[in-house]
Amino acid sequence: xxxxxxxxxxxxxxxxxxxxxxxxxxxxxxxxxxxxxxxxxxxxxxxxxxxxxxxxxxxxxxxxxxxxxxxxxxxxxxxxxxxxxxxxxxxxxxxxxxxxxxxxxxxxxxxxxxxxxxxxxxxxxxxxxxxxxxxxxxxxxxxxxxxxxxxxxxxxxxxxxxxxxxxxxxxxxxxxxxxxxxxxxxxxxxxxxxxxxxxxxxxxxxxxxxxxxxxxxxxxxxxxxxxxxxxxxxxxxxxxxxxxxxxxxxxxxxxxxxxxxxxxxxxxxxxxxxxxxxxxxxxxxxxxxxxxxxxxxxxxxxxxxxxxxxxxxxxxxxxxxxxxxxxxxxxxxxxxxxxxxxxxxxxxxxxxxxxxxxxxxxxxxxxxxxxxxxxxxxxxxxxxxxxxxxxxxxxxxxxxxxxxxxxxxxxxxxxxxxxxxxxxxxxxxxxxxxxxxxxxxxxxxxxxxxxxxxxxxxxxxxxxxxxxxxxxxxxxxxxxxxxxxxxxxxxxxxxxxxxxxxxxxxxxxxxxxxxxxxxxxxxxxxxxxxxxxxxxxxxxxxxxxxxxxxxxxxxxxxxxxxxxxxxxxxxxxxxxxxxxxxxxxxxxxxxxxxxxxxxxxxxxxxxxxxxxxxxxxxxxxxxxxxxxxxxxxxxxxxxxxxxxxxxxxxxxxxxxxxxxxxxxxxxxxxxxxxxxxxxxxxxxxxxxxxxxxxxxxxxxxxxxxxxxxxxxxxxxxxxxxxxxxxxxxxxxxxxxxxxxxxxxxxxxxx
Length: 750
Known about the structure:
By secondary structure, this protein is an alpha+beta fold. 45% of the residues lie in helices and 7% in strands. It contains 26 helices and 11 strands.
């Protein structure tokens, strides 16, 4: 009667068995399952008492007991279990039988030797643990006794026949595998009827040899097939032959076999095994060892199995950053592993860590994040970018390290589409205005101009009208030639955002002054841009009805992501890397990223987009396909430094910028407060009439003129200081002589 009211323990079981997922595994039926509370995936081994014999039930209960008591990283991990009168439920970590795993890998091209080498290492290590540490014999080792987890790691299971090497003290004897499964006899060693002729592990290592043969050659048809090596790697052959030797006393202990295979040149001596062994002991390694390991890991990841990278390397990388102070060295391998993740997994595992990394004060961390932003920007949502990432990134604009400022500017190409109205049109424009006007590095000023042109489609109409013409006009007066070219190309690339009146009254006059620029590249780009703008004006003059169509984008709102992809590659990546402190030069031409030759007054070809392959069209042709690469001689670069340092001494830009800071259109002119008088003959780089065709002196058009002027000024200054020093010394000597010598003990009375 009471049994009627008793609850079924299976219904209260904390795990759910998924339907249609069963697979035979020895005595057990293997099912995929999940924890009811959180959906964690598991494997459930189930044995039905009614369907088995008494011997099989005895073995199943023995395996159930062993799984609870045996704990080792290379033995199938017990999670939970349930024993009822009708059935046994054994819950373990999520695994797949090795035979099934190898079959799936064969369909993909086969398991690599690296993966197999680590798998065999794990099984031999588990066998060594049983034999040498627990004094147990597995008695059932084979392909069916090995399982593979999500990370591709091999686990030893099928503990049904595990027994003490000296026999069970209780006197209970488990049936041998061949009594339950007759076809298992082929895996028994030849001395099996007389098992006392060899070491205790002789039978275990013989079955290990059978397992190795089946891993490389498939199911073992008969015991005599072990003599045929088949596909067993040459590095493993000598050690395999020891395992299946006829003399049981000559067979090595599992620990000795492992040691032999780990010797230099052995099958288990490779970077994959070494990396796994290091990861197993990473918690006790020295910080310097961890740093070196993560640096080397990035090069090895390309040859490692994908599942291993996702489920073993990635957690260790995240842990190393979170708790191990690994720093920037984890970034490169972290992003490599991230390529194997789905979008959902990336959001869940990597994005929270990246957001936290941006708040780091470590410069190496910050610059690597900026350099590799392209790999993870697509997974960042706008809320996280504006509230958690951008506030930290903008500190890079004011960093004293030029490399960080340069990378911060370039990163805006990726962040701009995700920035909100305030951050993009106010905060970012304020920083760009300061960089373009006051940064001492010419390449950074150039890149700022380039970046502004590329993100123009994301700006609102009011900001574009207020900023673009002023910014590009300022760039055309920059002493750095690449910046002047960037200003010209900026006008060309954003031509559709200017009205016809602005083109005629403000842009063309600015461009015309550059037709006599000292740098030929600047002059060439200026002529192309002028022709394009004139063509636009002529079109409207011939047909005024086309005015609305030409000016349709002038008051348009910010455009969605991807609109400026045809301008990808323009100048940003070509301008010098400040970390190498070298300004390089690449010959022009369509293939090199230089300007293409015009086939007509208004026609030119340009490289296709680096992003989507779409060719540039209209005004874009021939104007912004250029990748600015300059090569300045040491003397010319020194000349720029002279102008820069002099400019810093003479003028100090006002920090009271209006809204975005672009109102100071002529910031490179010398009409500023705070000027001081310079020695005669010394002129600033900004004082040179870059945009004038009238020479004011015989040597003014010579770019190197200021060098000799500065040398002259320096010599005059030294002479004056020397004369002044001698004059002061003479006066000091006169005053001392007038006082006269004082006698010892004498006092000067009033």
